[in-house]
Amino acid sequence: MTGTAGRAEKITPQGALTLKLTPSRVRDYISCPRRYEQKYLRNAESGSASMLSPQESAARSFANTLHCVLEALHQATPGEHTGPPPGREMLEAQIDDLLSLHWQSAGYTDRDTEEAAFLEARSILTYYVKSPYIPTPTGSLLGSELYLNCHTTLAGRRVELSARFDRCELLLPGGVLECLDYKTNRDGQVPSATSLTSDLPSFLYFILAWHRWRSDPRVNSVVISQLNLLSLCKTRVEYSQRQIVTNKAALIELVAAIAAEEFEPRTNRSCAWCPVQESCPAWAELNLEDLEGFDAWKTRYLNGLYGDASGGGKDS
Known about the structure:
Strand content: 15-25%
Number of strands: 6
Oligomer: single chain
Distance between the termini: 11 Å
Helix content: 25-40%
Radius of gyration: 20 Å
Number of helices: 9
Shape: globular
């Protein structure tokens, strides 16, 4: 990627430049190729105030705060810790101090709303440390907020895959490496196992984890999990060989489409908060109310049920 605003990054037929893909970028391309192009290849900066932006900004601040506090909590077990985790009482006692230290205020429109969010975050984190989902004596915490990347060639193009993992834990006995992704959407839902299995952005986590630990004799398999921090609902998938082949083919197809500069707009409800609205030819003619399911989604969003509406940002 180039850091110079306005300069276009183009994947040439010779593959002179490396295409950088993260789960967020893959999700953006699937949602709308035009948004992907403008955000990552054209460095577009739209000055438009997108619909629902205060809620979106506050939701992102809330999610980022939780991620930072969880990372700090798990620093008590750095590296490849195989002994007992810190006592739950000790973890709980740290929550207020860590929340104050890592609190992000962007997007909150008044003090009362922000204070309510702080109390909610405290409740969520307290619930979490009392849950079965903190590292246990039967697991080895390999890392939290762990950045991994690898280089490969797909569809004849040089590609760098990268992602930031919320938590990687080796579950013993059995040698199952679990890569856990925290979610904060306020409806408390997580995708079904079937949906997660075919989710290409999540598959990038599998590729990176397997690349990193495939030679570790302790690791027999890799599973990808999502945990909603508000409800503690969890989805966990282990890919079959057939699913791996299918997802790899889909990833190669996506890379080929980007290399061929297939960047047509794809309208959907995410147009409501899209940061490149003003440069999009579809935006001027779009009536959001005509999009399937938009009215129901808008009502739920305004009621605070979609804390992750803007998608990820940690690994963009």
